[in-house]
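REQUEST ID: PR-0412
SUBMITTED BY: lab tech R.K.
PRIORITY: routine
TASK: structure prediction, single protein chain
INPUT:
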Amino acid sequence: MSNLSLDFILKRGVAEIISEKSLRERLRAGKPLRLKMGFDPSKPDLHIGHAVGLRKLRQLQELGHIVVLIVGDWTAQIGDPSGRDEARTMLTPEQVKVNAQTYMDQFFSIVDKSKTETRWQSEWFGKFSLGDVFNLTSRFTFADMMEHETFDQRVKQGKPLTLMELMYPLLQAYDSVAVDADVEFGGMDQKFNILAGRRLQGMLGKKPQDVFLVPLLIGTDGRKMSKSFGNTIDFELPAKEMFGRVMSLNDTVLIEYLTLTTDVSDEEIAEMDRALKAQSINPRDLKARLAREIIAQFHGADAARAAEEEFTRVFSKRELPSDMPTFAIRKPMPILDLLIAANLAPSKSEARRLIQQGGVRLDDRVVKTIDEEIPASEAVLRVGRLKFVRLTGSHQ
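STATUS: complete
OUTPUT:
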């Protein structure tokens, strides 16, 4: 491996490595490393925030290393408490299996399946005895767990924190022991859990894994990209909708997106950054370039070009999309319910926010009140610049 390629992998799109010196030595040793990434199939769909880490795994696979994908069929039933101010609803094993299959189908759109070892937590936790649980929990103290920012906040705020949730980092940590992980990958929100695995390996006489953390991508509304916020750019979005969502990004995140989600060279990105700061380039042109780069990864270059043409037709020429989903409205519906039923908002709170910000239109009219009833008639319901649904009316 050349120093240039090693530096690229360890510097671009990286938030923190613990420890970089150790990881460099391991990478230069010539032995294939076991690169662990776990996922809890609590939700089935992946978005481009997940792609930041997956692209790193693919780069290392191409250098001969092995990805070990952990399917968290046990931890998914708890739900990762990181960043949560309340406990999650437990999933059934059936829900976990369905979500896991969808997840893996999307995971392998970036990561090479032939160079991946897929492991299910039930391989080892299915054999755990009560004695094994006691042995695992004895390795960590309550004070250790309170170093987890989420746990500490919930205790200080007097919010419930279950013993089951305290087990989550321990189970994820044991995964690293079970599969002999050399490196574990994750977002910055996983730092506590991944460090727990590093620590547990050392306690049990194994060489501690190195930790490879990637940044958390900002969503289309300026908050952390999250399905719960409805601000994601999903792998399986149609190309036209994907293009529109990229074009809705704030100008301030363009360089970060180009760095984390594309293969555009560092030199070209640096030139784009200079041009943006000098105001010698239109940010819209860079967004279009970014959208083409992202869409080509999931749908191909032809689809990226077609999506750009459609975006120009709809948003520059103010025309309606050439095709849009339909929703049969059989009787008058409250606007909040209609937005959710027509898949234009993920929740009532998000629908309420969209209306209050003036982002919902019925034909050319802005919907101004959250308690408005929408009649059962033909119309185009629009959210922001990106989402359209044709209401077909009661006679359809």
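NOTES: The longest helix spans residues 283-299.
REVIEWED BY: pending
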